[in-house]
Amino acid sequence: MSIGELTALLRQGVMQVMFMAGPMLISALLIGLIVSILQAASSIQEQTLTFVPKMFVILLVLMIFGGWMFTSLGQFTEQLFRRIPEMAR
User: The pTM is what?
Assistant: First the structure.
């Protein structure tokens, strides 16, 4: 296996992580922004107020995208396992 192939494999792995974590991170970011704007407007400075909405939104995103995420991860893992004989040479 050449350095170029190894670099491509590493790039695919990083992209896989970004695609899987992206929906959860973006939704948590948006909910945090909305809650912080509401906190600033209402002068409520409770630190734990952002935790519960983020938790529910992340669980909702996992329910919606969970099947796709596990299918995508499974396909990537199968691709890696198929390439093991090439890597051993």
Answer: 0.77
